[in-house]
Design brief:
Helix content: 40-55%
Distance between the termini: 67 Å
Structural class: mainly alpha
Shape: flat
Strand content: under 5%
Radius of gyration: 31 Å
Order of helices and strands: HHH
Largest sheet: none
Length: 83
């Protein structure tokens, strides 16, 4: 019975002692220094949908089919023969 109680106490001690270390790693956003008059983060520019669509139309179509297994040295004819 004493062994089980000591194992439980040891487990609790490990949990309690590791909690401050985890809090320190998270950064703790409530300890900010400096004035409250900080500039707001710059806004991201709006996406111009018309310009995006026009740019997509300028991309040429591929003449040949992409072969994902081409770097392995397997020819497309050998792959079709195995089927």
């Amino acid at each position: 019975m004493k062994l089980a109680a000591s194992v439980v106490m040891l487990g609790l001690a490990i949990v309690v002692l590791s909690a401050p270390a985890a809090e320190a790693q998270m950064g703790g956003g409530h300890h900010r220094r400096g004035s409250g008059d900080q500039k707001a983060a710059p806004k991201t520019p709006k996406v111009d949908q018309k310009a995006y669509d026009a740019a997509l139309k300028t991309i040429p179509d591929s003449k040949e089919k992409f072969d994902p297994w081409g770097s392995l040295g397997v020819s497309s004819q050998a792959k079709t023969q195995k089927k």
